[in-house]
Amino acid sequence: MQLATALGYYAVMAHLVAHLRDDVGLLAGTISLVLGLRVAVQYALFLPFGPLVDRIGPRRAGMLACGLRTVAFGLLGVADDLGTLLSAAMALAVGGALLHPCAQSLLARLPPASRSGGFGIYVVTGQIAAVAGPPAGLALLAGGFGSLATVAAGAWAVAALLFGLLPRTVRPAGPDDARKLLRGVADVVRDRAFLRFAAVTAPSTLLATQAETVVPLSAVSSGQATLFFCAGAAAAAGVQPFLSRRGRAGHPWVLRAGLLCAGLGYLLVAALPFAAGWLVAVLVAAAVLNGLGTGLMQTGSFHAIVACAPPNRIGASIGVVNFMSGTAAFAGGLLIGQLFDAGAATVALVGLAALGAGSAAVGQTPRARPHVRASGAGTDSAERAADHC
Question: Does residue 159 contact residue 66 with C-beta atoms inside 8 Å?
Fold first, then answer.
């Protein structure tokens, strides 16, 4: 499911902006507004949709998410006006807000002994798709953007069918369902230690995603930027087998190391304009640090949430964490863009580095819940998650 959805997503999104600008004729500001609105809506919806996944079950939520994104990519293939594009963007947002807590809830239900390996495969598959998707999309563009969007929609339809093969886990609906959804968020928010954890690690999404913006703006060519993203994806995937062994993924240092690595990567990005003959070496080193940071942050955050979330509140906990990190990424991205426009790129990059280092220094995994041990967390990773809190 991850391979189908990620390939469909990256194949289209890598070429969407050029299509909307060159073929549809939209202004750059309009494109940026619509795509930015999609991100903002998706992260805002994580808060209510996390507990919704807890309520309706990953199977039904996954089918709904993939169905919405099937429609969204179909609309992108025929979008020739702002209204259709906005409809596609909102379908992408709603589908994404359902899909991510759904996928991580499924992984959280794995037996503790295989959970680290399962999440590692999930991350590696996504990174493979991030590298393979854009060239695959480029090949499909020979038949026009409509053909590319149709193939992507088909990939999401396949994922929806695969979700339908999962066992039914939904609980019977009742008249107080809306109250129970709100109670799911309230249970998470009342846990002050977990809320502090979510706030301290909120910069993780900003640190993981800002490279997509700041690297192309930092005196590198398109080919060098491609090298950066491929090397970063390889590093994020390559660290997963190491984390999956001997319960390492459950260690509190994983998330802190990820925040620190991602921050240090931006210091090297800030040095690119002054690297001269060492440009490629510095660029690759920055990419590896960024990729390691992304891989470590994804894994560390997931395992901390699983170990420390209230019982039957995995989706709600994921929703709260994603909502806070998405809000930080949206606000931080606007600020960094303004600093670059003002000619203060170095200030922005050093600020990102300081943010990563500061979050790593003050970050602390919240106390593991007793249910983690009771549900078979006598495994090494869960034991260590509790002992280090």
Answer: yes
